[in-house]
Amino acid sequence: MKKSLKLLILSILTISMLITSCFAVNIYYWYALDNYGNPTSNGWYYSIPLVGKVVECQTEADQVDAAIGLVYGNSKWNTANFLPFSLSYLPFRSSDPYNVSFTSGTTSWLSTYFTGVNANTTGITSVGSLTYEATVTYGGSSKTISSYYASSDDPNTSLTRIGIVTTCTEAQQRIIGGHELGHALGWYGHTSTTTQLMHYSANGITVTSVGSQDKYQIDQFYDLFY
Prior knowledge:
It is built from five helices and eight strands; from the N terminus they run αββαββαββββαα. It is an alpha/beta fold. The strands form two sheets. Strands 3-2-4-8-5 form a five-stranded mixed sheet. The chain is globular. 38% of the residues are buried.
């Protein structure tokens, strides 16, 4: 009887430790800040590979702007070589399924499709429903990590949508495409470091690759939960 009781207690403790390890994990990087410069409290990871596609834009010429952002963004995050999958994209006229749409137009036009567009907007990302996965700890503070399953089967709730303002220069559109894909991959908020792709402004920033902060912020989510 005593032996059985000991085994039961040991089993309960083991399960408790496993639960704790899954839901109170210490993480080692947090660079994401909100609009007021305070650390954000959440992040997410994509639970399936990203497949992008340029969809309807304000004009046919704007499709080129959206494609520039899509192709450049895919290239930069793939080159960083830390994601558990490769980002890919489809031709404009393809009927194959995708889960990240790229569009482009003026801020006025984009405001009919995205919430929060204003005169200073250069790019914007809208994600669908997130599923809570775990609470992790960084520097004594709690962070909520969610998973995100995106599918074109239900564009209103699960399709990631990225908009690029067409009045930006081509160089800016490249950076914006990569930046907005970073949000889709799990970056909530921005870094204040100008050498990083996830800096809050595309103006005057000449980033040519995914930086260490860009990578480490979300790499840990994929390592822990993907």
